[in-house]
Amino acid sequence: MRYAQGGGLTDERRAFREQVRRSAAEGFARGEDNAAIARRLRVHVRSVQRWRRSWLLGGSQALASKGVGTAPLLSEEEFAELEQELHKGATAHGWPDPQWTLDRIRILIERRFGPAYTIQGVAALLKRHGWSRRPLRRRPGAGPSAGWAKG
């Protein structure tokens, strides 16, 4: 996932990007070409081309921020509950060893809360909430070499 939970952009960052698009609209109105606008705003020409198309169809309001892209699959309360379950360990949820893997966490989320995350979505969710992969000491016959832990 490119952005953090809830679309990823903070309100300030979303406002900044909208201001960049508004500056582009001012350039369109003055008759500047796409390459000049892209250089001035330090963005890719393709972005300026897209913005110009939107501007031609809907004016400056077509370049306004649409807000948060999607709602998070888990609410903050549900994530807090998930954390409690993760702290219990994987064995408490029926796995043969205490190691949390992304696939196990994905299955736990689906069983407990319903929404189906991808492996990459689970990794992004955990990273947003301060979890990270932790290396484990390898024992002969041990499973995965790393697991997920808070902190």
Automatic annotation (TrEMBL):
Q: Where is the Winged helix-turn helix domain?
A: 98-140
Coiled-coil residues are none
**Which Pfam families does the UniProt record give?**
HTH_23, HTH_33
What is the protein's given name?
Transposase
